[in-house]
Write a structure and sequence with these properties.
With about 170 residues, the chain is mainly α. Helix content is about 100%, strand content about 0%. The protein has two helices and no strands. Helix 1 packs antiparallel against helix 2. The two termini are about 85 Å apart.
Length: about 170
Amino acid sequence: MTWLRANLMTAAALVLAVLLALQTWRLHTEQLAHRDLQVSVERDRQARTAAALKAVNDNTAKQETHATASQENANELLEELSRQRDAAVAGAARAERLRLDESRRAATYRAMSEAGAAACSALADRTTALDRQLAEGVGVVAELRGVVERRDAEVKALMGQIDADRALSEQR
């Protein structure tokens, strides 16, 4: 019985040793798997961080490009409006000069008509009316030209802004 008890204890010790070795091996395997998981998670975090940083840099570059294009577009519009204003002032001055000249010519035509016959008076009246219409027409043309040029400049500026916005949208 002692022999059986000793063999049984030896067998139990051997079984416990095998189970302990098996558990140690499983623990070691789990520790390796856990370490691999930690490394994988860290790599993923670094990749996400790099991707986020790249996205921020790309968006910043796109915003700078868009802001530059918008600023250039606004500057072009201001320059065009300045040119149009100068042209409108010159056109108004020309119309005013023609109006003043019309008054002087009317006086000249009246003097001619007083010196001549009744037919000259009618001719002078007709010529004066034509001069007045010419002066008014030049003023209207100058005003309309200014309106059309302003509209063209605004359309050009809006097209530039649309192109800049499209370029920004296409980059995304």
